[in-house]
Design brief:
The complex is a heterodimer of chains A (112) and B (112). Chain A has 112 residues and is mostly beta strands. In chain A, 0% of the residues lie in helices and 55% in strands. In chain A, strands 2, 5, 6, 10, 11 and 12 form a six-stranded mixed beta sheet that branches. The termini of chain A are far apart. The relative contact order of chain A is 0.34. In chain B, strands 2, 4, 5, 6, 9, 10 and 11 form a seven-stranded mixed beta sheet that branches. In chain B, strands 1-3-8-7 form a four-stranded antiparallel beta sheet, with no helix packed on it. In chain B, a hairpin with a 3-residue loop joins strand 4 and strand 5. The chains are: A mainly beta (112), B mainly beta (112).
C-alpha cells in the first residue's frame, strides 16, 4: 500500500523567508503527485500537480515543487513567503488504481 | 459548475442519534471520496467510489459508519449511532480518474 510522509509537522517562518516542505512517498508503481493547501477554516485546494514531463512544476501563488524519482520525493518550495501563506499544506499521491493518499500535513505559520 | 456540494455545513447532534452527511460531486467526475479530518488523526480517507461502486472502504472506522452512492450525482455518509469521538470535519471530494481531487467545503460534525 502507498504511504506519504511529510517530515515537518509545524514550520514557523518570518515573512520573506524561503520555504521548503519535505514530502516522501512509498509506492512501487507510477504515481501522480499533488500539493494541496488548506487555509484556516476552509477546504483543501490544489496548489500544484505533477503527472509527467518536467520534474520541476510551478503552481499558484509562487509555489513550485520538484519530483525526484530516485528519492521518491516531491518537496514544495517558495522563495519568499508571505503572511497570507499561513495554512496547512498536504502532499498527496494518486496511484493508477485511483486511490489518493495524503500525508499528515504541515502547518505553516508566517510571522508578519 | 458549482463544485462539490456538501450538506449540511454544520451538524450538532446528541450521542446515539443517526447522522447523514450528503455530497453532490462535480458532474462528469467518476471518483468520489469521503475523508474525515481531526486534529489528532489528520486527514483520513474513509471510503471511495468509482462509477458509484465502492472500491475501498478499509478506512471506515466501524460498522456504525456506512456510505452509499445510489447514482453518479449523490452520495451519503451515515453514522448510526453517533458518538462524541465522531466529531470532526467530513470532506467529500470528486475527481476524474488520475487527476486531482476537488474538495467540498466540508461538514463540521459535533456530537455532544
Amino acid at each position: 500500500a502507498q504511504s506519504v510522509s511529510q517530515h515537518n509537522h509545524h514550520v514557523i517562518l518570518s515573512e520573506a523567508a524561503s520555504l521548503e516542505l519535505g514530502c516522501n512517498y512509498s509506492y512501487g508503481g507510477t504515481v501522480n503527485l499533488f500539493w494541496y493547501v488548506q487555509y484556516p477554516g476552509q477546504h483543501l485546494q490544489l496548489l500544484l500537480k505533477y503527472f509527467s514531463g518536467d520534474p520541476l512544476v510551478k503552481g499558484i501563488k509562487g509555489f513550485e515543487a520538484e519530483f525526484i524519482k530516485s528519492k521518491f520525493s516531491f518537496n514544495l518550495r517558495k522563495p519568499s513567503v508571505q503572511w497570507s501563506d499561513t495554512a496547512e499544506y498536504f502532499c498527496a499521491v494518486l496511484t493508477n488504481a485511483g486511490k489518493s493518499t495524503f500525508g499528515d500535513g504541515t502547518t505553516l505559520t508566517v510571522k508578519p | 459548475d458549482a463544485g462539490v456540494i456538501q450538506s449540511p455545513r454544520h451538524e450538532v447532534t446528541e450521542m446515539g442519534q443517526e447522522v447523514t452527511l450528503r455530497c453532490k460531486p462535480i458532474s462528469g467526475h467518476d471518483y468520489l471520496f469521503w475523508y474525515r479530518q481531526t486534529m489528532m488523526r489528520g486527514l483520513e480517507l474513509l471510503i471511495y467510489f468509482n462509477n458509484n461502486v465502492p472500491i475501498d472502504d478499509s478506512g471506515m472506522p466501524e460498522d456504525r459508519f456506512s456510505a452509499k452512492m445510489p447514482n453518479a450525482s449523490f452520495s451519503t455518509l451515515k453514522i448510526q449511532p453517533s458518538e462524541p469521538r465522531d466529531s470532526a470535519v467530513y470532506f467529500c471530494a470528486s475527481s476524474i480518474r488520475n487527476t486531482e481531487a476537488f474538495f467540498g467545503q466540508g461538514t463540521r460534525l459535533t456530537v455532544v
